[in-house]
């Protein structure tokens, strides 16, 4: 049963609808129809019936022709629209055609409806072709459909996977194009082409294959294939289908022209403008009865009707003259190919039936086949390319023919593989010459080769591994694909041979590497899990080493295949599990802590490092864990001790500060009025006051150090003038320096910008640095300088004191570290001043360092940022 076209009739006269159905059925057109009698019915059937063709009355009770056409174009844009009317003028019908209608016919010319319907349905072949896919792989079928969609081809696809399905599909359908894989389950494209030639002789067949040799390609084209596309280059499928559609379109146009011609002969009313090709009617003497403008141009005749084609100028006329004479002699149609005006033409001469006694007439029509010729040339060129592909392919290719199964051809790659000097030398060898006596499994090469050949001949192809031997006697492993080829009633095998020495060595190296990995994996002291991670999923344990099993108390069978959450402690919050999974999937080097529960119920703390396994597909990760339960307990104890120490220091310092304040106040009051005290008493009071001040400074340093260590030291960082800070500090320290016979001076670069710092904290740092310089300088000068360098503000305090040894420089900024007293260096202090100063500068985003040599003084530098934030 052939394919039935769906025709939607939009007609409120049911009797006329039946007449139209009878007329179409009488022409041999097979169809199923539906009837809409008003606007609502039209809208419904356009959505549900999905028509291939719409035949509509111009007038309905509630809608007119232009609006009906607009609805049809929206609901079924690919369906041709034929308008019928018994009352409107031809002018209105032509206007409807300009709006997009395929054809307008008066209802009293119902006999022309079958021809118009056939022409309209034929147009679907090149606007929305029905394509039958012979493909047994769903993935390939989807790729082929995608290739057509990317080319912008709108088609009606259906698919057959076996010869039975293809035969059934061709029986019940009429495809415009057939696309077939070269090799399918149990049959090849050659059998598909043969079936297509029987069932759908006009449908072009396009063959798709992953790879094919020159002879196969030639055989395909000789069998009738229209085109050939490699699966690795599916972007050519769309253009190939378009070429086929173009040929279909050309054939349809030719058939339409011939149909118009026959109607014109019968009715003598031909609309010549619809025929683009040269076309005319002539009698047996060559006198032109009717002709179109294209024929006039081709014949070189200004006035075509009544002209004599036998006397017309040009090569075209000479070719037509001979064709008309041959047609007159044979009484049947004559076709020929020739050239005219640089174009390739295909001309047909048909004898026209006339009444008895009338002069014989001939219809002549020519088609420009220049494009078809070009396509044919391209196909020939493509065949040549495939021949060269065989000869120059990097794959080693050869053919073998029964019954001897000797080599009949081979390419250069094959000769190089076996060490032959030429193709001729290679062909002089027998298959036995190129194989050792025995294969690795102990089978005789000759007997096993027969088995491989039988499998390939019976199954169409056979892939296997084989040990070959070069002409110099060297053996090597190879993979062999034997493919059966049938051509000109001959069957032979195409062999594709690959030297797999490299892959075999790599495979052995991989096995050795895997063995080394397994040994390292199982002997590692740390717990190692292999996890499979997929997006939006909990990681799954795929393997575990001995340390992991010992740590958790499980066997490998008990953990492999389980989610990693299987090992989590029961009190682990879900949010923590989700966070840990996210970190693990984020990439290499994710480190985090986790709490797992052993099989015996005990809980352990783990430090986990997760990274992607190299060489994988991105879904496998290594989870390396270490039990840090004891370390965590120790760290907690240390932290608790540190907190106790901090609290103790703060408490003691606070308790000392209160009575010390009273002592300083009392001694200070006594020193303000020393009347009645002798010199020794005054000295003792001053000594007590100085030591109390020193003790207060010590307590303040301890408190500051504790605040810095706890991260609780407050800072008020804003823009300040460093020059003002330096000058104020120098003024406050000048008397102390002078009292020791030292000069304290400042060197400030002009125009210093504002910098970002806490003024009180920087005064504290400067006071400490200047005080240290005064304390360790016997004579000379102490200089405080400032300047800008590399976008930073730099401050330096230099002295001419005894200097610091290279071994002592690293100790300067350590808490509670005091440098040993030397010949010129005095010991004293708590060892906290510089440590606090360094922390203050670091909190500002700066740096504090010292430069010194023994006997040459010291320089302390620090930097501050110019911009806040």
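Sequence proposed for the structure above (869 residues):
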């Amino acid at each position: 049963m052939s394919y039935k076209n769906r025709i939607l009739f939009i007609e409120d006269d049911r009797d006329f609808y039946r007449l139209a159905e009878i007329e179409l059925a009488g022409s041999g057109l097979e169809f199923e129809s539906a009837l809409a009698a008003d606007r609502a019915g039209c809208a419904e059937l356009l959505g549900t019936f999905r028509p291939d063709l719409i035949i509509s009355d111009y007038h309905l009770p509630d809608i007119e022709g232009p609006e009906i056409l607009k609805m049809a174009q929206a609901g079924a844009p690919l369906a041709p629209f034929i308008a019928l009317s018994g009352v409107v003028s031809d002018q209105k019908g032509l206007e409807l055609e300009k709006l997009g209608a395929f054809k307008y016919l008066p209802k009293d010319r119902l006999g022309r409806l079958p021809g118009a319907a056939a022409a309209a349905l034929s147009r679907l072949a090149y606007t929305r072709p029905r394509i039958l896919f012979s493909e047994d792989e769903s993935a390939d079928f989807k790729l082929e459909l995608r290739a057509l969609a990317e080319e912008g081809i709108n088609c009606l696809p259906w698919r057959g996977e076996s010869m039975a399905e293809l035969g059934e599909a061709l029986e019940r359908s009429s495809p415009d194009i057939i696309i077939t894989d070269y090799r399918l389950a149990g049959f090849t494209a050659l059998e598909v082409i043969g079936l297509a030639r029987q069932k759908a002789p006009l449908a072009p067949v396009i063959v798709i294959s992953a790879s094919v040799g020159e002879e196969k390609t030639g055989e395909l084209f000789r069998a009738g294939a229209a085109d050939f596309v490699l699966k690795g280059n599916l972007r050519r499928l769309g253009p190939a289908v378009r070429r086929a559609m173009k040929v279909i379109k050309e054939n349809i146009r030719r058939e339409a022209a011939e149909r118009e011609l026959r109607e014109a002969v019968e009715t003598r009313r031909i609309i010549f403008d619809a025929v683009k090709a040269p076309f005319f009617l002539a009698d047996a003497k060559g006198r032109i009865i009717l002709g179109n403008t294209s024929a006039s141009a081709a014949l070189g005749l200004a006035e075509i009707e009544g002209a004599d084609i036998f006397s017309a100028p040009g090569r075209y006329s000479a070719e037509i003259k001979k064709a008309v004479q041959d047609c007159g002699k044979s009484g049947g149609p004559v076709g020929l190919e020739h050239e005219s005006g640089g174009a390739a033409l295909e001309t047909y001469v048909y004898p026209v039936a006339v009444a008895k006694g009338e002069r014989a007439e001939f219809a002549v029509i020519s088609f420009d086949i220049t494009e078809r010729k070009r396509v044919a040339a391209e196909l020939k060129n493509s065949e040549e390319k495939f021949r060269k592909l065989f000869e120059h392919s990097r794959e080693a290719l050869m053919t073998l023919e029964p019954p001897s199964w000797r080599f009949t051809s081979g390419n250069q790659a094959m000769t190089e593989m076996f060490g032959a000097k030429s193709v001729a030398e290679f062909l002089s060898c027998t298959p036995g010459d190129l194989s050792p006596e025995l294969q690795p499994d102990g089978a005789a090469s000759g007997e096993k080769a027969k088995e491989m050949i039988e499998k390939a001949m019976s199954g169409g192809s056979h892939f296997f591994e084989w040990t070959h031997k070069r002409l110099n006697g060297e053996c090597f492993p190879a993979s062999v694909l034997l493919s059966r080829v049938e051509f000109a009633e001959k069957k032979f095998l195409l062999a594709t041979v690959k030297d797999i020495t490299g892959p075999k060595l790599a495979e052995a190296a991989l096995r050795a590497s895997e063995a080394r990995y397994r040994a390292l994996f199982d002997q590692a002291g740390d717990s190692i899990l292999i996890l499979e991670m997929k997006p939006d999923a909990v990681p799954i344990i795929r393997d575990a080493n001995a340390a992991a099993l010992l740590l958790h108390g499980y066997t490998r069978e008990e953990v492999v295949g389980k989610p990693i959450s299987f090992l989590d402690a029961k009190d682990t919050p879900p949010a923590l599990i989700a966070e840990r999974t996210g970190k693990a999937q984020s990439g290499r080097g994710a480190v985090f802590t986790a709490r797992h529960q052993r099989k015996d119920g005990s809980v352990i703390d783990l430090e986990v490092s997760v990274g992607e396994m190299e060489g994988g597909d991105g879904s496998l990760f290594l989870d390396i864990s270490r039990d840090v339960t004891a370390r965590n307990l120790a760290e907690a104890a240390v932290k608790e001790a540190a907190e106790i120490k901090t609290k103790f220091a703060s408490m003691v310092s606070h308790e000392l500060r209160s009575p010390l304040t009273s002592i300083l106040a009392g001694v200070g009051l006594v020193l303000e009025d020393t009347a009645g005290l002798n010199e020794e008493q005054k000295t003792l009071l001053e000594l007590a006051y100085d030591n109390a001040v020193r003790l207060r400074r010590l307590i303040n340093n301890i408190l500051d150090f504790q605040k810095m260590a706890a991260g609780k030291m407050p800072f008020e960082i804003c823009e300040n003038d460093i020059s003002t800070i330096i000058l104020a500090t120098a003024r406050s320290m000048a008397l102390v320096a002078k009292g020791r016979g030292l000069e304290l001076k400042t060197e400030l670069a002009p125009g210093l910008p504002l910098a970002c710092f806490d003024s009180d904290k920087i005064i504290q740092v400067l006071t400490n640095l200047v005080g240290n310089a005064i304390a360790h300088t016997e004579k000379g000068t102490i200089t405080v300088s400032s300047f800008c360098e590399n976008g930073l503000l730099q401050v330096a305090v230099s002295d001419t004191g005894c200097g610091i040894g290279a071994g002592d420089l690293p100790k300067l900024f350590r808490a509670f570290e005091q440098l040993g007293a030397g010949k010129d260096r005095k010991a004293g202090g708590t060892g906290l001043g510089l440590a606090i100063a360094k922390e203050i500068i670091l909190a500002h985003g700066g740096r504090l360092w010292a430069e010194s040599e023994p006997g040459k003084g010291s320089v302390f530098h620090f930097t501050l940022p110019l911009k806040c934030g």
